[in-house]
Amino acid sequence: MTSILIVPSSPSYVAGMEDVEHANYGTSRAEPEDVLTERHFLHHLQIFPEGQFAALEVQPDGSERVVGLTSSMRIHFDPAHPFLESWEQTIDGGWLRKHTPDGEWMYGVESAVLPEVQGRGVGGKLMQARFDVAKRLNLRGMVAGSALISYYKVFETVTPEDYVRGVVAGTYFDDNLSKQIKKGFRPVALIPDYLPDPGTKGWGAVIVWDNPDYVPPQH
Q: Which pLDDT tens digit goes with each residue over 158-199?
């Protein structure tokens, strides 16, 4: 019986993390296109090691393989005036140049799980690891972009605004946003041209998770 273990990322895991990226997006080391690679993950460890995690599948004999990953950075963010830009712009091609060491919010750069391991709660465990870091560092919360990957089903008759409202109300189920809402996120704005993905018709949403344990600094 195998088990899933969430651990802080390290240089020994970055090759497996890149493998997860290629398995998810149909890319390869020869043609990585826009996915994160070993070099990206090593850079993330240098600038914000606390925000990087790997999911390991551990065999009874102790052998292990990387089956998931999550990457994050710290930023300054105002939920009342969220940035409306593509994922590629926010992460600067994977180099996280917008990372701010004293940023009061954590931005979810990437989260991915091997297709054959999905459905076993790995993504939820990786997200909990992020929440735990935000609480430990006393950050205001977490922000991310959510691709509306199921919008293609209704886009001919439903506006993006009405779609997101419907997902929040439970009228529509989005394979991405609905799951993130269940984890405690709330959408605060729409992002046009977020991802060049046919399912989203280009649309994403800014989503926010507020740290319930956040203690404002005392002046």
A: 999 999 999 999 999 999 999 999 999 999 999 999 999 899
Average pLDDT over residues 33-39: 95
Give the contacts of 119 (CB within 8 A, at least 6 positions apart).
Answer: none
The percent of residues above 70 in pLDDT, for the chain, comes to: 100
* Structural contact between residues 54 and 13, judged by C-beta atoms closer than 8 angstroms: yes
Res. 19 pLDDT band, cuts 50 70 90 = very high
DSSP secondary structure of the chain:
--EEEEEE--GGGHHHHHHHHHHHHT--SSS-TTS--HHHHHHHHHH-GGG-EEEEEE-TTS-EEEEEEEEEEEE---TTS-----HHHHHGGGT-TT--TT-SEEEEEEEEE-GGGTTSSHHHHHHHHHHHHHHHTT-SEEEEEEE-TTGGGTTTTS-HHHHHHHHHHTSS--TTHHHHHHTT-EEEEEETT----TTTTT-EEEEEEE-TT--PPP-
Cα dihedral value 77, 181, 170, 118, nearest 10: 140
pTM, full prediction: 0.95
Whether the Cβ atoms of residue 106 and residue 74 lie closer than 8 Å to each other: yes
